[in-house]
Amino acid sequence: MKNSPMEALARNSMLILWTIFALFPLFWMLVISFKSDAQMFNTTFVFDPTLENYQEVLIKTDYFKYFLDNIIVSGGAVIVSILVGVPAAYSLARFNFRGKEDLAFTILSFKFAPEILVVLPLFLIYQKIGLYDTYIGLIWVYQLITLPLLVWVLRGYFEDISVEVEQAAQLDGYKWYQIFFRILLPLVKPGLVASALLAFIFAWNSFTFPLLLSGFKIMPVTVASLRYIASDTVHYGQMAVAAVVTATPEVILAILIQKHLVRGLSFGAVKG
Amino acid sequence: MARLTLKNVFKRYRNKKNEAADYAVNDFSLSCDDGEFVGILGPSGCGKTTTLRMVAGLEEITRGDIYIGDTLINNLHPKDRNIGLAFEDYALYPPLNVYENIAFNLSAKGVAREEIDRRVREIAPLMKVDDLLEMKPAGLSGGQKQRVNIARALVRNPLVLLLDEPLSHLDGKMRQILRTEIKRIHNKIKCTTVLVTHDQLEAMSLADRIAIMNDGKLQQFGTPLEVYDNPVNVFVAGFIGEPPMNLMKVSILEESGKLFFLFPKKGIRVAVPSRYRSALRSGMEVTLGVRPTDIFISSDDGTGSEVTVDVFENLGDEKRISIDVGEEDFLTLMTEDERRYKKGEKIHLRFHEEKTHIFDPETGDRIQA
Question: Is there a domain that residue B367 lies in?
């Protein structure tokens, strides 16, 4: 590609514009988390920073309980998805069975339906069978979010691995599980890491399902943030704190896995 | 090292509706002597790789028996068959480096570490991969990958070495180098080897004997010279040799007590070799087979058949002349003399009597003199 100064300038200014657009809400959230309610609407960038909101949220409420709930349901959902999704992706990639494509499409279609549409019947069912407001219930329904992603990314990875590699290992005298763990798993690892972390973030951010399918026992932070809307006023500062703390793990994760994320979702497992 | 024997082996795949399809391998029998290099040659889809995979244990045998030495291996697990298989697309283990790839089999068997090291360091220089031991497969060229692939098959000291199209993914130069290399290694270790290939040059140059397959059936099994000089049917005749043998439908004509091959559309006649006299009668139709190198241009003394040159190609060390005899294909002959022929020029042809073959046009089988 040619790199004339004008082009470089144009490209970089577009990127800078995009960066501001993308990062400003985060920055704004951080700013208001340090503002007192009194200064919320009459100051912009110049104000007396206070930690009052952090005290209110982190110490005086059950925020950490909600945080832990979120970790349990999101983490649990991803673990279940890996346990189910890896073998599922493998069989979709390797074996020919009747209705294979239909099955694959059905798994993908979990992501098509708007959550708000499926959540109402689920609510009734969950009430009936006692899954309402339980960890298992949430982890289960989160599969709609996490499983399709994992299965479809990993299926592509498995398809890229030549069957002959497995047969060679078979000839070499390895058992199927040894082949799976020693040969296949290292090959799909980039895809597995990327899709699992992406799935984790989606699950972490999930709002509709936990809002309607859990009550007071289990409350992920996304839902808990609503509690800062009191009947008389909205505690924007406290909400901002909740949001900042909630977003922190995601931001850290995203930065840590940045490379994996791009590589893992765009590259196949075995090249040339 | 051991004999490899296939006795009436069949393979039939089932299609999606679980109906039995045609036989991919049909009544295939073959016997390779101890230390022999056998090539299985055939066009793609003829069942040669399926045959190899049945020997390796990667495909079930529908019917028939396969022996290595005196052991029936039909129901043995692939790892217990004592074979080494070099896969067509290398199938190296990408996460492992070359050393680990070669050692993978031995470590599965629980061979002691020092012994593994000794064996790997012994086989690596033989396959000329000793400089690559630390590298990952992704960093290797095609030729290097194939060397590692073969080294991996050899390191277990197999009774039978199976090579599945080992050279088909390599470029021309590397293909030649590795071909010579495979020959050299076979001469050195004298392991019973089966090579599957669709490239006749590979089979002719490497194999002691060649099994030619078509449509799942064995057509002919013999030394390269045998299959070249005495093809048993039209398929083998047309498949072996470059440029391919001229195969033309002709009828037999008798005139004043002499038999001629007659190309009916152009009325060209060629004298029938005397040894076929008893087998042929006037009015019969046969397929005539003669290699381009076995047709000579003779002086005009009345014995040759007069034809007209249609295309003359000068390829440097050989010249090709194509003659329109009214059939689908041109009759091609090769000459080495320095003369340049022109289109439309009249020449006289004589066929090499010993190397003129005739085939039954219905069955394709060769008609013996």
Answer: no
Domain with B273 in it: what CATH number? Answer: 2.40.50.140
- One of 2.70.98.10, 1.10.3720.10, 1.20.1250.20, 3.40.50.2000 is the CATH number of A52-266, namely 1.10.3720.10
Residue-level pLDDT at A84: 95
Is residue B60 assigned to a domain?
yes
* Closest Cβ–Cβ partner in A168, A182, A269 for B91: A168
Reported as a single tens digit per residue, the pLDDT across A224-272 is 888 777 667 778 888 888 888 888 888 888 888 777 777 766 654 444 3
Per residue in A170-224, pLDDT (tens digit) is 888 888 888 888 888 888 888 898 899 889 999 998 888 888 888 888 888 888 8
pLDDT for B39-85, tens place per residue?
999 999 899 999 999 999 999 999 999 999 999 999 999 888 999 99
CA Rg value for chain B:
25
Whether residue A167 and residue B83 make contact (CB cut-off 8 A), yes or no, is no
Q: Looking at the complex, does the CB of residue B97 fall below 8 Å from at least one CB of chain A?
A: no
Q: Please report where in the chains the tokens 């590397």 appear, as a residue.
A: B174
Q: What is the pLDDT of residues B273-288, one digit of tens each?
A: 888 888 888 889 999 9
Q: Angle between the A63-94 and A135-160 helix axes, to the nearest 10 degrees?
A: 40
pLDDT at residue A271, as a whole number: 44
Stated pTM of the model? 0.77
What are the CA-CA distances from residue A91 to residues A88, A143, B14, B57, B300 (Å)?
A: 5, 19, 20, 22, 73
A194-197 long-range contacts (CB < 8 A, ≥24 apart) are: A194/A153, A194/A257, A194/A260, A194/A261, A194/A263, A194/A264, A194/A265, A195/A149, A195/A150, A195/A153, A195/A154, A195/A264, A195/A265, A196/A78, A196/A81, A196/A82, A196/A150, A197/A253, A197/A257, A197/A260, A197/A261
Q: Residues B178, B204: one domain?
A: yes
Of the three residues B214, B239, B264, the one that is the final residue of a domain is B239
CB-nearest to A187 from B83, B87, B95 is B95
Residues of A in contact with B108 (CB under 8 A): 172-174, 178
For residue B250, what are the β-bridge partners? B286
d(CA A159, CA A165): 12
Amino acid at A5: P
Residue B366 inside a domain? The answer is no
Give residue-wise pLDDT tens across range B118-127.
999 999 998 8
